[in-house]
Write a structure and sequence with these properties.
Blueprint lengths: L4 E4 L4 H12 L3 E6 L7 H7 L7 E4 L2 E4 L1 H11 L11 H23 L2 H8 L4 H14 L8 H21 L10 H16 L11 H11 L5 E4 L2 H10 L26 E6 L7 E8 L3 E8 L3 E8 L3 E5 L4
Parallel strand pairs: 1-2, 2-5, 4-9
Antiparallel strand pairs: 1-3, 3-4, 6-7, 6-10, 7-8, 8-9
The structure holds glutathione.
The site of glutathione has 14 residues, from helix 1 and helix 3.
Length: 317
């Protein structure tokens, strides 16, 4: 089994999604706790610019975005499946909705003034201000719902989820699939990080019962790890050769007219649009791989999903 290093922090919803998937697959992993706001020098040494959380490191291979990390973990440990064959299409589409529309409605609800007061009330004013400024700067291309509109949308989404878990223990049947992990983490954030606002969950008791089943999955076997040691792991390792990459596909799919070997950047479409630059090594139907070099890590391969990311050629590169 490869050594899995998750770079994450406790209060991050997308990190909780990954911690639970690691638990569902009964995996052992190393935990590197990263800062919630910039600067993140050790994260950026690995990713080359990407600053969102979490990131999965396997030696000198760095996997960005939970959609791609879930694919990697499915490959590493196929059972129990995140994408059962009969639900392959619908579960991914549902998960994408949950990771975007549901997530942002929940966040706009959670970070209304009462939630912000709870999260930051006990911190020095400067820390709260630094967080607010960091998130404002990250919010490129993002339309934030106003709290009242977010509340209406969130209530509706919770009722819809309730209709699903009224029928069976998990969203699409007797077992969890990727849809459950994606829908759970924004609600987990409401319940655990902003308890004064968690009353919104009371109107749908079956959602609360489903959340308890999800929480019971646990986080697998976690061992604390140091970010400096993680950089050293990357520096000592060579990126895996193409045939051993923990990704399902390798065939080149050229949608941009950009040849492999070209110097490119990859940029998230919204929220945290710091780019990673490197040489395009793979552009498959599902993901991109860039090769880059950093004095602290040596040569690393950084992987991104296609969906949600912008690929550009570096002019003159
Ligand atoms: N699509 C990304 C979204 C990740 C994301 O937005 N993560 C939040 C934390 S839950 C984040 O990066 N916040 C800012 C930060 O941690 O720097 C994924 O699935 O990994």
């Amino acid at each position: 089994m490869p050594e899995l290093i998750l770079h994450h922090y406790a209060s991050s919803p997308f990190s909780e999604k990954m911690r639970l998937v690691l638990g569902y697959k009964k995996l052992a992993w190393h935990s590197v706790v990263v800062p919630a706001i910039l600067p993140k020098p050790d994260v950026v040494a690995l990713t080359g610019g990407y600053r969102r959380t979490p990131v999965l490191q396997v030696g000198a291979d760095i996997y960005c975005d939970t959609a791609l990390i879930c694919d990697v973990l499915e490959h590493v440990q196929p059972e129990p499946a995140l994408y059962p064959p009969a639900l392959k299409g619908v579960s991914r589409i549902f998960a994408q909705w949950a990771d975007s529309t549901l997530f942002w409605a929940a966040m706009a609800y959670n970070f209304q003034p009462k939630g912000t007061q709870h999260v930051f009330g006990s911190l020095p004013a400067a820390a709260a201000q630094a967080f607010a400024e960091d998130r404002k700067a990250m919010s490129t291309n993002l339309i934030r719902l106003r709290p009242a509109d977010a509340t209406s949308a969130y209530r509706s989404y919770l009722r819809r989820i309730a209709h699903m878990v009224d029928e069976h223990d998990y969203l699409f049947g007797l077992d969890p699939c990727i849809a459950d992990f994606a829908a759970y983490h924004p609600l987990w954030h409401t319940r655990t990080q902003v308890p004064p606002l968690a009353g919104i969950l009371d109107a749908t008791p079956s959602v609360g019962e489903w959340m308890a089943r999800m929480a019971a999955i646990g986080h697998g076997t976690m061992e604390k790890f140091d970010s400096g040691a993680a950089l050293e792991v990357a520096r000592r390792a060579d990126p895996l050769p193409p045939a051993e990459k923990m990704l399902v596909d390798s065939a080149f799919q050229d949608d941009h007219g950009i040849a492999l070997g070209t110097r490119v950047t990859i940029t998230p479409e919204t929220f945290g649009t710091e780019s990673t630059a490197g040489v395009l090594l793979a552009a498959t139907r599902t993901h991109y791989t860039l090769e880059r070099e950093d004095p602290r890590t040596g040569v690393v391969h950084v992987h991104f999903p296609r969906i949600g990311y912008v690929l550009r050629k570096v002019e003159g590169g």
